Amino acid sequence: MDLDFKKTLHFYSPRSEGPACTAAAPKPRVAFLCVHNSCRSQMAEALGRKLAGDVFESFSAGTEPGGRINPDAVRLMKQVHGIDMEASQHSKALADLPPVDVVVTMGCNVQCPTLPCTHREDWGLDDPTGKGDEAFLAVIKRIEEKVLDLKRRAQAGAWK
Protein backbone atom coordinates (compact mmCIF):
# COMPACT_ATOMS: atom_id res chain seq x y z
CA MET A 1 0.00 0.00 0.00
CA ASP A 2 1.28 3.42 -0.89
CA LEU A 3 2.05 5.37 2.30
CA ASP A 4 1.44 8.71 0.62
CA PHE A 5 -2.05 8.69 2.11
CA LYS A 6 -2.97 12.17 0.96
CA LYS A 7 -2.81 11.02 -2.65
CA THR A 8 -4.39 7.60 -2.27
CA LEU A 9 -7.15 7.84 0.32
CA HIS A 10 -10.19 10.00 0.75
CA PHE A 11 -10.68 11.50 4.20
CA TYR A 12 -13.75 12.35 6.18
CA SER A 13 -14.30 12.96 9.82
CA PRO A 14 -16.32 10.25 11.54
CA ARG A 15 -17.42 12.82 14.10
CA SER A 16 -19.33 15.86 12.99
CA GLU A 17 -21.30 18.46 14.81
CA GLY A 18 -24.67 19.63 13.55
CA PRO A 19 -25.50 23.32 13.30
CA ALA A 20 -27.74 23.07 16.36
CA CYS A 21 -24.91 21.83 18.58
CA THR A 22 -24.48 24.16 21.54
CA ALA A 23 -22.01 22.15 23.63
CA ALA A 24 -18.29 22.82 23.44
CA ALA A 25 -16.68 21.03 20.53
CA PRO A 26 -15.04 17.75 21.55
CA LYS A 27 -11.27 17.54 21.53
CA PRO A 28 -9.85 15.98 18.38
CA ARG A 29 -8.98 12.31 18.74
CA VAL A 30 -5.53 11.20 17.59
CA ALA A 31 -4.63 7.57 16.90
CA PHE A 32 -0.95 6.59 16.90
CA LEU A 33 -0.46 3.41 14.86
CA CYS A 34 2.27 0.87 14.26
CA VAL A 35 2.39 -2.84 13.55
CA HIS A 36 2.59 -4.37 17.04
CA ASN A 37 1.43 -1.47 19.23
CA SER A 38 4.19 -2.34 21.66
CA CYS A 39 6.71 0.50 21.53
CA ARG A 40 6.60 3.72 19.45
CA SER A 41 2.82 4.03 19.23
CA GLN A 42 2.50 3.28 22.96
CA MET A 43 5.07 5.95 23.83
CA ALA A 44 3.28 8.42 21.52
CA GLU A 45 -0.07 7.69 23.20
CA ALA A 46 1.46 8.21 26.65
CA LEU A 47 3.25 11.42 25.67
CA GLY A 48 0.16 12.67 23.86
CA ARG A 49 -1.87 12.25 27.04
CA LYS A 50 0.79 13.92 29.19
CA LEU A 51 1.91 16.77 26.92
CA ALA A 52 -1.23 17.49 24.90
CA GLY A 53 -4.14 16.00 26.82
CA ASP A 54 -5.64 19.46 27.21
CA VAL A 55 -5.85 19.80 23.41
CA PHE A 56 -6.49 16.31 21.98
CA GLU A 57 -7.30 12.78 23.10
CA SER A 58 -4.63 10.14 22.43
CA PHE A 59 -5.07 6.50 21.49
CA SER A 60 -2.81 3.84 20.00
CA ALA A 61 -3.28 0.55 18.18
CA GLY A 62 -1.52 -1.93 15.95
CA THR A 63 -2.36 -3.89 12.84
CA GLU A 64 -0.92 -7.01 14.51
CA PRO A 65 -0.95 -6.22 18.27
CA GLY A 66 1.91 -7.83 20.16
CA GLY A 67 0.07 -8.43 23.41
CA ARG A 68 2.51 -6.62 25.66
CA ILE A 69 4.30 -3.30 25.76
CA ASN A 70 8.06 -3.34 25.19
CA PRO A 71 9.70 -3.55 28.65
CA ASP A 72 12.46 -1.09 27.69
CA ALA A 73 9.84 1.42 26.57
CA VAL A 74 7.98 0.93 29.86
CA ARG A 75 11.16 1.33 31.94
CA LEU A 76 12.46 4.42 30.13
CA MET A 77 9.10 6.21 29.93
CA LYS A 78 8.77 5.71 33.69
CA GLN A 79 12.34 6.92 34.26
CA VAL A 80 12.21 9.95 31.93
CA HIS A 81 8.59 11.07 32.22
CA GLY A 82 7.22 9.32 35.30
CA ILE A 83 4.62 7.55 33.13
CA ASP A 84 3.77 3.96 34.05
CA MET A 85 2.56 2.63 30.71
CA GLU A 86 2.01 -0.87 32.15
CA ALA A 87 -0.53 0.51 34.60
CA SER A 88 -2.37 2.78 32.17
CA GLN A 89 -2.10 1.18 28.70
CA HIS A 90 -2.24 -2.14 26.87
CA SER A 91 -1.63 -3.38 23.33
CA LYS A 92 -4.73 -2.87 21.15
CA ALA A 93 -6.00 -3.69 17.66
CA LEU A 94 -7.35 -1.13 15.19
CA ALA A 95 -10.87 -2.43 15.88
CA ASP A 96 -10.49 -1.29 19.51
CA LEU A 97 -10.15 2.38 18.51
CA PRO A 98 -13.00 4.85 18.84
CA PRO A 99 -13.70 7.09 15.82
CA VAL A 100 -10.67 9.36 15.34
CA ASP A 101 -9.90 12.64 13.61
CA VAL A 102 -6.15 12.25 13.08
CA VAL A 103 -4.10 9.13 12.27
CA VAL A 104 -0.34 9.15 12.84
CA THR A 105 1.70 6.16 11.68
CA MET A 106 5.08 5.71 13.28
CA GLY A 107 7.11 5.02 10.14
CA CYS A 108 7.02 1.26 10.13
CA ASN A 109 5.42 0.80 6.71
CA VAL A 110 2.26 -0.21 8.53
CA GLN A 111 -0.26 -1.66 6.11
CA CYS A 112 -3.22 0.22 7.49
CA PRO A 113 -6.69 -0.28 6.11
CA THR A 114 -8.70 2.84 5.49
CA LEU A 115 -9.31 4.34 8.90
CA PRO A 116 -11.69 7.29 8.56
CA CYS A 117 -10.04 10.56 9.58
CA THR A 118 -9.62 14.16 8.53
CA HIS A 119 -5.80 14.13 8.61
CA ARG A 120 -3.14 11.45 8.28
CA GLU A 121 0.64 11.69 8.60
CA ASP A 122 3.66 9.44 9.05
CA TRP A 123 6.41 10.30 11.54
CA GLY A 124 9.15 8.11 10.05
CA LEU A 125 10.49 6.89 13.41
CA ASP A 126 12.97 4.02 13.57
CA ASP A 127 12.05 1.14 15.87
CA PRO A 128 14.45 1.22 18.85
CA THR A 129 13.66 -2.37 19.90
CA GLY A 130 16.87 -4.27 20.61
CA LYS A 131 19.08 -1.21 20.08
CA GLY A 132 19.81 -0.09 23.64
CA ASP A 133 18.79 2.84 25.81
CA GLU A 134 20.36 5.54 23.63
CA ALA A 135 18.14 4.56 20.69
CA PHE A 136 15.05 4.53 22.92
CA LEU A 137 15.88 7.91 24.43
CA ALA A 138 16.38 9.41 20.96
CA VAL A 139 12.98 8.10 19.83
CA ILE A 140 11.31 9.33 23.02
CA LYS A 141 12.79 12.80 22.44
CA ARG A 142 11.64 12.80 18.80
CA ILE A 143 8.11 11.73 19.82
CA GLU A 144 8.02 14.54 22.42
CA GLU A 145 8.90 17.07 19.71
CA LYS A 146 6.34 15.68 17.28
CA VAL A 147 3.56 15.54 19.91
CA LEU A 148 4.22 19.18 20.84
CA ASP A 149 4.13 20.14 17.15
CA LEU A 150 0.86 18.25 16.72
CA LYS A 151 -0.50 20.09 19.76
CA ARG A 152 0.44 23.47 18.26
CA ARG A 153 -1.26 22.59 14.99
CA ALA A 154 -4.38 21.37 16.79
CA GLN A 155 -4.52 24.60 18.81
CA ALA A 156 -4.30 26.53 15.53
CA GLY A 157 -7.38 24.68 14.29
CA ALA A 158 -5.61 22.48 11.76
CA TRP A 159 -8.38 19.85 11.67
CA LYS A 160 -11.55 21.87 12.08
TrEMBL record:
One record GO biological process: response to arsenic-containing substance
Keyword Repeat: no
CDD domains, per database record: LMWP_ArsC (cd16345)
A family per Pfam: LMWPc
Xref: InterPro entries: Ptyr_pPase, Ptyr_pPase_sf
Species per Swiss-Prot/TrEMBL record: Candidatus Allofournierella merdipullorum
Residue spans crossing the bilayer: none
Keywords: Arsenical resistance
Listed name of the protein: Arsenate reductase ArsC
Ranges where the Phosphotyrosine protein phosphatase I domain occurs: 28-153
Keyword flag rRNA processing: no
